[in-house]
Design goal:
Radius of gyration: 25 Å
Strand content: 25-35%
Strand order of the largest sheet: 32-33-35-34-36-37-38-39
Shape: globular
Largest sheet: 8 strands, mixed
Distance between the termini: 31 Å
Number of helices: 11
Length: about 725
C-alpha cells in the first residue's frame, strides 16, 4: 500500500541492449494482440437479487459469488483461474520476464537494527528467500545468529513473521505468524538466548503488536473472539479488544483490558511506556484517523482512564519522559505537530507545543537518545530532523537523495539508532546515526544483479486536476529518455485512508524500467501527503476527486509525451484496485490496459465482510443517503455498462484474502465479462494460499509480476 527533480532525453545503447536481451518489445499492435478475442468465458448465471437503498432499486446479479465455498462458485473460480493461467502463459516473452525478475530480486537486503536489552535485532534476506530471517547480535558490527527463520515453517514459504515484541531486558520475544497471507495471527513466545519457544500460544490475534510489562511477566495484545468454524476468512470482525497475557498461562485466562462494548467496529491498541509506568491505549472508529487516547497507571494498578475522550483529531503516542506524554497530532494543526501532555493536567489548555506545525507534513516521530527524530514529507519525500525534547532544532539528518527514510527506533538513553533509506531506483540501505554528534555512517548497502541504478532517474512533476488542484507525481525512467510518446508506461495510484505514497524501491519496478518502461506514481487526494485537508478532499462524498486526480495524471503523461494512450497501463491494489475499476469505467478509451489488484469493487456491500465496516470512515455508509448516492455513482461493480469497449483488464485476487473479500473481484470480473464477452480480454487471476499481499513469498511475487507485465505488454502489442 510505499525521486525527484531530474528529467531525460534520448535512448541509450544500454536500453537497446536490454530490449535485445529480453527480446520483448516489438511493433505496436503486433500479432500477439490477436489472442484477445474469443476467450469463451466460463458461464456465470445472473441472479435476480434486488436491493433497495433509500427507495433506489439496485440489482446484484452475482450475489451468489459471495458464497465463495459453494460448489457453483468453486467451479466458476477454477474455470476462470485456468483461463487466465492458459492465456498468460501463452504470451510471448513471459518466461524471459520471469527469469529476469528472479535475477533482480536476488539481492541481499537488511532491515534497520533495533536494540532491546543488551542485544540488537534485525531482519535479513539473502536474496530469494521467500521470507526474511530474524537475526540477533550483541553488536551490529559483529556477526549475528538466526533467531527465527520462517522459511522452515512451510514448504511453499507462505508462513510469514508479521510482528514481534521484546521484553524490557531483551530475554523474551513474543512474535506473530500468519499463514497464507491471512490477517489472522498466531502468537508465541521465544527465549532469545536458547532460540526455543515456550508453551504460550495465542490465536485470533489481528492488527496488533505485543507490548511487555516492565517485569517481563506478560504482554498486551489485540484480537477478537474466535469466529465460527469455516468463517474466519469472511465473517465480520467486531469488538476488537486489548488483552493481557500472563506468561506461562493459557490464553483462556487472558484478561480483557479494554474494548468499546458500545461500538463493535472500533480498533484498539496498547503500548507500555518505556519506563513501565503507564499503559497507553489508542482507540478509533474503524480506519478513521481520529482517535481517543487512554492511560492506565500500571504501578498503581489503576483503571484505564481517558486522557483524550473524544476522537476529534489524530493523537499518536511517541514516548514519555516521566509523567509527560509526547504526542503527534493534527489537533489544531492539519499538517501535524508534537505536543507534550502532563498526565496530572491533561486538558488541551495545558498542552505544551514541542514541534509546531510547519509547511511540510509531519509524518512521524520517535523519542530516542534524549531527542525527537521527526520525519517530514516535503512533496511526498522524506526530510529528517532532530530536536531536543523542548523543541530546539539540533540539526537535519543527511539523506542521500529525494527518497524515503524510516526506522530511528530506540530508547531514551540510547546513543545510536539505525534507519533505512530508499527511492524508486535505489534499494534500501541502512545507516547508523550517532545521536550525540548527528553523524551518519553506512551500515549495509545492497548490490543488485545487473540493474544499474545510475542509468535511471526520477522526476517530480506537478499537474492540474479537474478542479484546478495541483497534484504531484513521480515519474521514473531511463536517464536521457526521449519524450516522443512511444514508451510503455505504468501509472500507479492509491488515494485513500491517509496513506502517503512515498518513493520505494521494488525489484519489480526495476525490471519494468529495464524493459524500457516508464513508471509513474501519482500522489492523489485521499492520501496523507499534505495532511488532513488533502486526505479529507478524497473521502466519502469527495471520492470523485481521487478519480479525477488519477485521470489528470494519465492525461498529463500523454500530453507531455512520456507515453501515449496506446502505451499507457494503469495499476492499483486494494483501495487502489477500486481506483482502477472506477477510472476505467469513467474513461475507458484513455488506457491501453488496466490491472486491478485485490480491489474493493462492491461499494454497497463492502461492510458485510471481515473488517469492511471499518472502511466507512473513509468511504461513507449506505445508511447515509448522500453517501449512498456517491458510492453508487462510482462503485466499479455497479457501473459496468454493456457494449462499452473497456481496455484489456487483469483482475487479481487471492483465495485467503480476509481483508478485501475475494468476492469483490469475482463479482466485478463476472460483470465485466458479461458486458462485453467478445471484446478485449477481461481475466481474473486467483492466487492460491495467498492473502491481501502482506507476507507473500518471493516466489509468488515473481510469478505475479511476470503475469502483470506480460499482460500489459500484450495489450500494448509489445509482447514478443
Amino acid at each position: 500500500m510505499k525521486i525527484r527533480q531530474i528529467a531525460g532525453s534520448t535512448l541509450t545503447a544500454l536500453l537497446n541492449l536490454a530490449l535485445l536481451g529480453f527480446g520483448l518489445l516489438g511493433n505496436a499492435y503486433a500479432d500477439s494482440a490477436a489472442a484477445n478475442r474469443d476467450l469463451g468465458y466460463p458461464s456465470a448465471r445472473r441472479g435476480d437479487q434486488i436491493d433497495v437503498y433509500h427507495g433506489v432499486k439496485v440489482a446484484d446479479p452475482y450475489r451468489w459469488l459471495e458464497d465463495v465455498d459453494s460448489p457453483e462458485t468453486r467451479v466458476w473460480v477454477e474455470a476462470e483461474a485456468k483461463l487466465a493461467s492458459d492465456y498468460l502463459e501463452a504470451i510471448p516473452g513471459r518466461e524471459k520476464i520471469a527469469r529476469r525478475l528472479k535475477e533482480i530480486w536476488n539481492y541481499e537486503r537488511w532491515g534497520a537494527p533495533e536494540k532491546h536489552g543488551g542485544d540488537w535485532f534485525y531482519s535479513h534476506n539473502d536474496g530469494l528467500q521467500n521470507q526474511s530471517v530474524l537475526f540477533t547480535t550483541a553488536n551490529p558490527q559483529q556477526p549475528a545468529r538466526v533467531l527465527l527463520d520462517p522459511n522452515g515453517l512451510a514448504k511453499d514459504g507462505t508462513i510469514a513473521l508479521k510482528a514481534a515484541g521484546y521484553s524490557d531486558d531483551g530475554r523474551l520475544m513474543a512474535y506473530g505468524l500468519s499463514e497464507a497471507g491471512s490477517d489472522w495471527e498466531v502468537w508465541r513466545v521465544r527465549d532469545v538466548a536458547s532460540g526455543k519457544d515456550m508453551p504460550d500460544e495465542i490465536h485470533w490475534a489481528k492488527f496488533t503488536t505485543a507490548s511487555w510489562r516492565k517485569d517481563g511477566s506478560g504482554f498486551y495484545y489485540s484480537g477478537y473472539a474466535a469466529t465460527a468454524a469455516g468463517q474466519s476468512l469472511k465473517a465480520q470482525n467486531q469488538f476488537h479488544t486489548v488483552f493481557f497475557h500472563q506468561l506461562g498461562t493459557a490464553q483462556a485466562l487472558d484478561s480483557k483490558v479494554y474494548t468499546r462494548v458500545d461500538e463493535p467496529d472500533w480498533f484498539v491498541g496498547a503500548r507500555v511506556t518505556e519506563d513501565g509506568h503507564y499503559l497507553v491505549i489508542s482507540a478509533q472508529h474503524g480506519t478513521d484517523v481520529r482517535n481517543t487516547l487512554l492511560v492506565a497507571d500500571l504501578y498503581a494498578d489503576a483503571a484505564v482512564k481517558p486522557i483524550i475522550a473524544e476522537p476529534r483529531a489524530n493523537y499518536t503516542f511517541i514516548g514519555n519522559i516521566g509523567s509527560t506524554l509526547y504526542v503527534l497530532t493534527d489537533d489544531d494543526a492539519p499538517k501535524y505537530r508534537v505536543v507534550a501532555i502532563d498526565l496530572g493536567h491533561p486538558g488541551p489548555e495545558h498542552w505544551r507545543s514541542v514541534l509546531a506545525e510547519s509547511t511540510d507534513t509531519l509524518d512521524g516521530a520517535t523519542l530516542v537518545g534524549h531527542q525527537i527524530v521527526a520525519l517530514y514529507l516535503h512533496d511526498a519525500h522524506s526530510v529528517a530532523r532532530r530536536f531536543s525534547p523542548m523543541g530546539k532544532l539540533l540539526g537535519d539528518v543527511a539523506l542521500p537523495g529525494f527518497g524515503t527514510a524510516s526506522g530511528f527506533a530506540g530508547r531514551i538513553d540510547d546513543a545510536v539508532t539505525y534507519y533505512s533509506y530508499m527511492d524508486y531506483t535505489t534499494p534500501a540501505s541502512v545507516y547508523r546515526l550517532d545521536l550525540k554528534t548527528g553523524r551518519t555512517a553506512l551500515w549495509r548497502a545492497p548490490v543488485l544483479s545487473g540493474f544499474k541504478s545510475a542509468g535511471y532517474e526520477t522526476t517530480l512533476v506537478f499537474y492540474t486536476s479537474k478542479d484546478g488542484t495541483r497534484v504531484p507525481m513521480f515519474v521514473t525512467a531511463r536517464r536521457g529518455l526521449k519524450l516522443d510518446g512511444s514508451h510503455p508506461t505504468i501509472l500507479y495510484g492509491y488515494g485513500g485512508f491517509n496513506d502517503s505514497l512515498q518513493p520505494v524501491f521494488s525489484p519489480a519496478v526495476a525490471a519494468w524500467l529495464e524493459l524500457g518502461g516508464v513508471y509513474a506514481v501519482a500522489n492523489l487526494r485521499g492520501g496523507g501527503e499534505y495532511g488532513r485537508v488533502w486526505h479529507e478532499a478524497g473521502m466519502k462524498t469527495h471520492k470523485q476527486n481521487v478519480f479525477d486526480d488519477f485521470i489528470g495524471a494519465a492525461e498529463y503523461l500523454i500530453a507531455n509525451r512520456w507515453t501515449s494512450r496506446e502505451r499507457l497501463a494503469v495499476h492499483g491494489a486494494s483501495n487502489g484496485g477500486l481506483l482502477i475499476g472506477a477510472v476505467e469505467e469513467q474513461q475507458p478509451a484513455l488506457f491501453a490496459a488496466a490491472v486491478a489488484q485485490v480491489g474493493v469493487m462492491d461499494m454497497l456491500r463492502f461492510r458485510e465482510f471481515t473488517v469492511g465496516k471499518a472502511w466507512e470512515a473513509d468511504y461513507g455508509s449506505v445508511d447515509n443517503e448522500n453517501e449512498f448516492k456517491a458510492l453508487l455513482a462510482y462503485s466499479p461493480y455497479h457501473n459496468v455498462r454493456a457494449k462499452v469497449a473497456y481496455p484489456p483488464t487483469l483482475v487479481l485476487t487471492s483465495d485467503h484474502d480476509d481483508r478485501v473479500f475475494p468476492a469483490h473481484s469475482f463479482k466485478f470480473a463476472a460483470a465485466m465479462q458479461n458486458a462485453d464477452p467478445n471484446g478485449n480480454p477481461i481475466l481474473i487471476r486467483v492466487d492460491l494460499r495467498a492473502g491481501h499481499g502482506g507476507g507473500k513469498p518471493v516466489a509468488k511475487r515473481v510469478e505475479e509480476w511476470a503475469d502483470i507485465y506480460s499482460f500489459v505488454l500484450n495489450a500494448m502489442g509489445l509482447a514478443k
